[in-house]
Amino acid sequence: MVQPSNVTTLSSTLISSSDDNTFDGVIDSSSHSKPPSSSSKRTRGRPAGSKNKQKLAIVIDQNHEHVQKPILIQIPINSDVIETLTQFVCDHQISIAVQSASGSILNATLRDDQSEISTFIVHGPFTLASFTGPCIYNNYSTTSLSSNLDYFLNISFCSNLDQSFVGVVGGKVIAGDDVVVTATTFKNS
């Protein structure tokens, strides 16, 4: 409990004042000196001498020959997906990076893991799950069109019978319905 002798009321606190109605011990904010300025508004933006300089805009030339462009290639029923991609790359003399594919295939020729030469054919129909890899156009080769192209395409697909296959394409991949390949084009330097 608080004793009445410890409580000081406001009426007992004296504030001394002078004849000009200013209080002693109170500092008037207008008495502080201010630097002279032409306007009372605060400046905005980056302060002079700041190391936080404005950054220049970066302009990307869309007509540059090395710009990557996304494309979709639709491959019709009973066509070879690999042959269609090879023909596209050679006709346009560009390289592509295959990102994905959708659709179904009738059969696929896969490369054996143990040997780069031996291949085997898997007969379907199958649904494409994944199809990725580069098709690199070699513009320095002067021999046949097929030697102008290097590709390393990974494929995975599954059947309706709970079978799934994953491998490296070693030959033909025949489209069962319209196969749509998503890729990015680029030119070699």
Automatic annotation (TrEMBL):
<keyword id="KW-0238">DNA-binding</keyword>
<dbReference type="InterPro" id="IPR005175">
    <property type="entry name" value="PPC_dom"/>
</dbReference>
<feature type="compositionally biased region" description="Low complexity">
    <location>
        <begin position="29"/>
        <end position="40"/>
    </location>
</feature>
<feature type="compositionally biased region" description="Low complexity">
    <location>
        <begin position="1"/>
        <end position="20"/>
    </location>
</feature>
<feature type="domain" description="PPC">
    <location>
        <begin position="65"/>
        <end position="189"/>
    </location>
</feature>
<dbReference type="GO" id="GO:0005634">
    <property type="term" value="C:nucleus"/>
</dbReference>
<dbReference type="InterPro" id="IPR014476">
    <property type="entry name" value="AHL15-29"/>
</dbReference>
<dbReference type="Pfam" id="PF03479">
    <property type="entry name" value="PCC"/>
</dbReference>
<dbReference type="GO" id="GO:0003700">
    <property type="term" value="F:DNA-binding transcription factor activity"/>
</dbReference>
<keyword id="KW-0805">Transcription regulation</keyword>
<feature type="region of interest" description="Disordered">
    <location>
        <begin position="1"/>
        <end position="53"/>
    </location>
</feature>
<keyword id="KW-0804">Transcription</keyword>
<protein>
    <recommendedName>
        <fullName>PPC domain-containing protein</fullName>
    </recommendedName>
</protein>
<keyword id="KW-0539">Nucleus</keyword>
<dbReference type="GO" id="GO:0003680">
    <property type="term" value="F:minor groove of adenine-thymine-rich DNA binding"/>
</dbReference>
